[in-house]
Amino acid sequence: MAKDIEYGTDQYAPNKDYQDPPPAPLIDAEELGKWSFYRAIIAEFIATLLFLYITVLTVIGYKSQSDTKHNGDECGGVGILGIAWAFGGMIFVLVYCTAGISGGHINPAVTFGLFLARKISLARAVMYMIAQCLGAICGCGLVKAFQKSYYVRYGGGANELATGYSTGTGLAAEIIGTFVLVYTVFSATDPKRNARDSHVPVLAPLPIGFAVFMVHLATIPITGTGINPARSFGAAVIYGKDKAWDDQWIFWVGPLIGAAIAALYHQYILRAGAVKALGSFRSNA
């Protein structure tokens, strides 16, 4: 019978004992006085700015090249596949670049999920979300500044519920899509898995980028794919049209619900947090 491979009993890594790190404090006053805290906030701001700049330019470029009313070709541009690659590829690049500084969230939904799992403090979560939203606004602002006529003509990369889809369908698409992303983030960055499977190199940004890519393929026709409240908010602020604002709540409520479900699923089902808590309660009793 196979032996349990947890806590250093893995035959491939016998000396790699593992214990869960303690949960992050809800309020961590000490980190507010550290440069590393503010450096991480700056990294989240710049990463989200670059993310929106490249991806929104890709969306607008595709619409411009495929617009037959303005000498475009229906088969021109990168297509939906190319847009999905742009989003997934940029997440891969930016998570790789910033993971060692801020954790490479670049998404308020990811930050919210990690906060619920007690991976980060409340102050860090709030500041990350503010930095991400400001970065998204600035990224879209740069696109509009450089290509204003194209930006306005082709929708500014704003997320809107597509014609023919109900609000419930759009909300479900955002919930499930964000669940896939945040679930992947938890799995790819799980320190227990890295300690247990140390003989298998894990490049966390790669599966996270692929998750973003796959979700975009599935949900671009429905909502344009949000799964990132900062991405949707920044585009809506700069584009400023009613439709983008009317549907904005979908791109906040859906991702936050999806992130919460992913955090609970990973922590209490896959990591057996509920079973451990129950066992601790019984032993104390």
TrEMBL record:
CDD domains: MIP
PROSITE patterns for the chain: MIP
Residues spanning the signal sequence: none
Subcellular location: Membrane
GO cellular component: plasma membrane
Tagged with keyword Transport: yes
Primary subcellular site in the record, as a coarse category: membrane
Membrane-spanning intervals of the chain: 41-62, 82-104, 125-146, 166-188, 200-222, 249-270
Gene Ontology terms for molecular function: water channel activity
Keywords: Membrane, Transmembrane, Transmembrane helix, Transport
Membrane topology classification: Multi-pass membrane protein
Family: Belongs to the MIP/aquaporin (TC 1.A.8) family. PIP (TC 1.A.8.11) subfamily.
Annotated protein name in UniProt: Aquaporin PIP2 3b
Native organism: Nicotiana tabacum
Lineage: Eukaryota, Viridiplantae, Streptophyta, Embryophyta, Tracheophyta
